Amino acid sequence: LMVASYGPRTAYLSSLSEVTILNYGHSYGAAAPTTIVNSDLYNDGMMVVDGTQSQPQSPELEPGDVVDGGVDQHSSQAGQQSTMKPAVGNGDNAIILSVQLKPSLLAIGPNHLALALNNRVRFYSLRRQSTITQTATRQAQPSAPISQQPPQAAYQEQEYITIVTGISLSSRFVAIQFDDGRLKLHSIGDTEPASVREQQQTNGSEQVVESRDNNYNSTNTNPTMIQDDERFFPDPLQPETIAAFTLTEELLVYCTIERRINVFSLSSWCIVQTCEHSGTFVGPVWRLKQNDRGNKFVCLVNNNCADASRSSRGQDCVYLYDLYSNKVFSLISSGQQQPNNNNLWPRLVQEQIASTLEMLTFD
């Protein structure tokens, strides 16, 4: 099951070309339940809407295919739309989005849903979720004119130079991991439809975008990607390979196969802290999970292998990295013998921790 979680939202791939987003509303105050469904499905290159074929769309990619271009194109497909329409059923807290591609990777953040296929990533806006829901509810009424168009879910599509293997999102930034062990951090451009932006300008609403160093505020009436807000990791002078990473509102934290945990500040735009953990455990960290406050990180480690390849891992151990003390503490070890466990403990550590971390919330 392909699943990702952020705060009260959990997203998972519910079919080959549909993503379901559940909104539990238990974090960040009042999160209203929503129901939106998109019935667009791919059928031999044709998009099917309510049983009617439309014009042919761009061909689907298969895993392993790389879009031509060879360079990152951050704003090549900004502001596109995916048609949505109201659901019929009892899914009061669900959004089902037809994504018009078969993603191999998904991630969710405070404002965006990201879907990746090979070297392409689509960013769907979640910020206007309540407005879209209200529109969809009105259109679901029997008295609604048939000619009314369903609400639009905006997205922008970006292409990278190689295969994307990991994504982590904050409200303004995204960290993209590649199959060669590198990581790219950059800001996320606006994904609102042009009609929404025009309406905001007509109503006099303005969006203020703060730079990473907070030296200026500007009215963003034509939002674009901030090209200066990007950086590759690791540093070219450091022969390191990144095995795990996570992004908070203030920090990018990444772990290397060389047994280092590096903390990069988004406000200072530099590495502010490094933790050498080679003396604590042998294997590299292959997964990170942050707490709600962004000051502690659960590290999934395998002490029996020298690399981060999932196929070569056996039983995993769990450690806690504390940001303030810059130390790593042992939480769970698969080597610990529990009384009368009948081999349940090693199986639990090996098979359940990885999936549990996807939806784990802790202080």
Describe the protein in words.
The protein has 363 residues and is mainly beta. It has helices at 129-139, 194-202, 344-358, and strands spanning 3-6, 9-15, 18-23, 35-37, 41-43, 46-49, 52-56, 73-83, 94-98, 105-108, 112-117, 120-125, 152-159, 164-169, 173-178, 183-187, 208-210, 217-219, 230-233, 242-247, 251-256, 260-265, 270-276, 285-290, 296-301, 317-322, 327-332. Strand 5 (41-43) and strand 6 (46-49) form a beta hairpin. Mean pLDDT is 67; it is low at 26-60, 83-91, 130-152, 194-198, 204-227, 308-313 and 336-352.
Strand and helix map with partners:
Elements: E1 3-6, E2 9-15, E3 18-23, E4 35-37, E5 41-43, E6 46-49, E7 52-56, E8 73-83, E9 94-98, E10 105-108, E11 112-117, E12 120-125, H1 129-139, E13 152-159, E14 164-169, E15 173-178, E16 183-187, H2 194-202, E17 208-210, E18 217-219, E19 230-233, E20 242-247, E21 251-256, E22 260-265, E23 270-276, E24 285-290, E25 296-301, E26 317-322, E27 327-332, H3 344-358
Parallel strand pairs: 4-9
Antiparallel strand pairs: 1-2, 2-3, 3-9, 5-6, 6-7, 8-13, 10-11, 11-12, 12-13, 14-15, 15-16, 16-19, 17-18, 20-21, 21-22, 22-23, 24-25, 25-26, 26-27
